[in-house]
């Protein structure tokens, strides 16, 4: 092969290289990666899948967003909550036979309200579905140790979830107005459900360290809010309703 032929072949290869470089630059300016389909060549199935994911995310977040909006005007702090005869503390698990750290914070807030004269009776509601697991009794012991008289504490042993606790507070214990105490990630749901169950409810969201457990609780609320929305719509009876009890009435009478 002569020198002229070799030079012509080299020039042709160089021209092709420059042409490819220009095309790649044009793709980058247009916002596309070389080798991927153009905007007009995207697969319809991919767009539909992305749209479906977006719709599912929005639907999953709607109940939680609605509850935050619904409860927003009914949240207070321990310092500015109006005087209310009954405070309701929701269970939050036990460590052995003692309240979990989250539950301790709720009970401390209730004791603070009682000490300040902002509430007269504390209704502790939690799970006692097993003989060896008794949230209300552990909550009662802690409050008594904090200085709340035993006869000012009423136990609901069938508060298996937030909706059950709210319905039972109204139908079984005759509470028509209460201040609810829970963590910030839960209080919006608690207030919304209790108001839907017929209580004039206000909520106190206690402060907590934003650790892994706190964020996990917040993520759980997204799922729990979906069930809560169904509870509001369907209004099911609690797992255990039972007969009316006069514990709150007697406790209030002893306070007068």
Topology of this protein?
Blueprint: H1 3-29, H2 44-71, E1 75-76, E2 86-90, E3 94-95, E4 98-99, H3 101-115, E5 121-125, H4 135-145, E6 153-156, H5 162-171, E7 177-183, H6 184-196, E8 200-206, H7 212-234, H8 247-255
Parallel strand pairs: 1-8, 2-5, 2-7, 5-6, 7-8
Antiparallel strand pairs: 3-4
Helix pairs in contact: 2-6, 2-7, 5-6, 6-7
- Beta strands, count: 8
Contiguous runs where pLDDT drops below 50 for at least 5 residues: 25-40
Distance between the termini: 115 Å
Fraction of residues in β-strands: 5-15%
Structural class based on helices, strands and sheet pairing: alpha/beta
Give the SSE order as H and E letters. HHEEEEHEHEHEHEHH
In the sheet with the most strands, the strands line up as: 1-8-7-2-5-6
Largest sheet: 6 strands, parallel
Give the % helix. Answer: 40-55%
User: Radius of gyration, rounded?
Assistant: 30 Å
Number of helices: 8
Mean pLDDT, to the nearest integer, reads 83
Key words describing this protein structure:
alpha/beta, 256 residues, two-stranded antiparallel ribbon, 8 helices, 6-stranded parallel beta sheet
Structure description:
This protein is α/β, with parallel strands linked by helices and 256 residues long. It is 53% helix and 13% strand. It has helices at 3-29, 44-71, 101-115, 135-145, 162-171, 184-196, 212-234, 247-255; strands at residues 75-76, 86-90, 94-95, 98-99, 121-125, 153-156, 177-183, 200-206. Helix 2 packs across helix 6 (184-196), helix 2 (44-71) packs across helix 7 and helix 5 packs across helix 6. The longest helix has 28 residues, at 44-71. The chain is elongated. Residues 25-40 have low confidence and may be disordered.
């Amino acid at each position: 092969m002569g020198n002229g032929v070799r030079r012509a072949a080299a020039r042709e290869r160089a021209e092709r290289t420059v042409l490819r470089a220009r095309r790649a630059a044009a793709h980058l300016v247009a916002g596309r990666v070389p080798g991927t389909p153009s905007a007009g060549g995207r697969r319809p199935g991919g767009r539909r899948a992305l749209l479906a994911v977006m719709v599912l995310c929005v639907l999953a977040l709607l109940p939680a967003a609605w509850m935050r909006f619904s409860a927003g005007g009914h949240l207070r702090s321990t310092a500015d909550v109006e005087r209310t005869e009954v405070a309701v503390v929701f269970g939050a698990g036990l460590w052995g036979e003692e309240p979990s750290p989250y539950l301790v914070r709720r009970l401390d807030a209730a004791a603070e309200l009682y000490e300040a004269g902002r509430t007269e009776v504390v209704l502790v509601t939690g799970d006692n579905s097993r003989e060896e697991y008794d949230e209300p009794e552990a909550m009662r012991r802690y409050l008594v140790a904090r200085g709340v008289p035993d006869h000012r504490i009423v136990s609901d042993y069938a508060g298996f979830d937030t909706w059950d606790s709210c319905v039972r507070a109204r139908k079984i214990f005759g509470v028509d107005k209460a201040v609810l105490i829970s963590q910030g990630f839960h209080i919006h749901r608690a207030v919304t459900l209790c108001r839907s169950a017929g209580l004039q409810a206000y909520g106190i969201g206690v402060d907590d360290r934003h650790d892994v457990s706190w964020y996990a609780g917040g993520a759980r609320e997204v799922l729990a809010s979906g069930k809560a929305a169904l509870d509001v719509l369907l209004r099911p009876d609690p797992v255990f309703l039972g007969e009316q009890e006069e514990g709150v009435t007697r406790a209030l009478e002893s306070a007068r």
